[in-house]
Amino acid sequence: MIGFRDPGRLLRTVRHLKPRQIAWQIGNRVRTRLENPASLASHEPPTYPGSRWNRDTTFQPPRQPDYAPDAKRGRFRFLDEERELGSPIDWSAASTPKLWQYNLHYFDWLFSTGFDEGAKAVLDWIERHPPRRGAVGWEPYPVSLRAMNWCGWFFARHAQRTEERDDLDERIWASLWRQLVWLESHIEYHLLANHLLENAAALAIAGSCFHGPDAERWHATGLRLLCGELAEQLLPDGMHYERSPMYHARVCYLLGVLAECGTEDVRRAVREPLRRARAALLRVTHPDGEIALFNDAAFGIAPAPAALGVDVSREKPGPWSLPSAGYYGMRTAEGMYVCIDAAEPGPSYQPGHAHADLFSFEFSVRGHRVFVDSGTFDYVAGPMRRWCRSTRAHNALEIDGQNQSEVWGAFRVGRRAMPRGVQWSAGADGFRLSAWHDGYAHLPGKPVHARQFEFRSEGQLLLIDRIRSSRRHTARRYFHLHPTCRLSLTGPDTAMVRTPVGPVGIRWSDGAGRILKGWYCPGFGERVRSQVLVLQCRTTPESAMRCRITAC
Asked: Distance between CA atoms of 413 and 434, rounded to whole angstroms?
């Protein structure tokens, strides 16, 4: 109902959807109200057909959490929040946020438990979390991740022990069969993007894991979806089209698992996409080995780049570009690294993970993050979600207190700021990038913002912002610092940043500088106070504002 309070914004949001997506959205809502998931329990699975995998099959864990879950006591920690769900486990976890519940039902945490404890928890889930209306664990997305994890944990990592336990393989197979039959009829065509890719990967993995006609059907459906979605979702430069380094890392993980555990047909389909995806991930990885935090991104959700076969220490120094994705930057042998976001807000029909962050940047100095993206705190519509997606939460320029793109709700985007006139030139000692966007053109005076970046390999970054408008406006440029850095104003147009690796100077034209408090959210549920330099000025019809950042 919240969208109908502003019908104009709702129209600006839904007009980008594909017709078939709208039809599936409507159909999904009707079906959710009418169908009875509990009827699935009456479907009798066929006899366990046997697994194609064995104890030599390698299945990479999706991630290794920094804690040991205690399934015996029902104690779990997700998104920086620990909960005790009791014994037996309260699988509904109704008092927790939905993303926390999702993490519980993914069963990623199995890979950090012992076999007996993990098997007992899985059997308890099968017994006490049957399909029913409103059960989060039976939504297609957690079904997809859980199916892959169960296949990998029981039939690859613990294949021998699973086979030795009386009826265990039969019981796991019976539950997986019901889950995958359910997934087959609930593929997320209404959402598309990464959800549909996860559905495809789950069917392909399960189809590669088991013998029998059902597995052959899952394999065929998964492979068909994979080929179609990879052709669309993986851009020519190798980046995932949602432009989130975190989700891109997840795609690299999926492709890696498919390349290891899939049939020959599956391996052949993912071989080249995996190579290109890893190359793109390397570009958006800082010297510290972690991803840039553009759009919805956080550490600890997808495996770190090194775990995905991406070794940043082997990257050759020099400028780089991902022109299809809209990311540009440079890396030096001395640990200077800059990454710039000149990207569209994801695919037009699914920009749910986009932030209002066009022309933002991240800058590491001598291997240490100094200018950072604020990251992502949660997926719950509320103050922190609004702030993390806002223009002021990024190293970007804001006009009259408005966001460049009309981000609203938890995952909605109405009016979108689109990069225009992108020009990129690079040499051995630096690069120049310039572009403009129309995200503020709806404001009085139809302001247009252009930003130019010039970077020199010795560690100097120049930003030139130009605003053209028939009206005067208040412009604010934001510069977010890593929490380990300390900022002080040293003059009317200068500031100094003290970092663990030496000072960084800032000099600007046009506007007064202020130091405000911000948030740095490197992980879901995690927020740390940080400092933000804000440069504010009143514009003229042809404003040009400069800011030079120099690693001393």
From this structure: 25
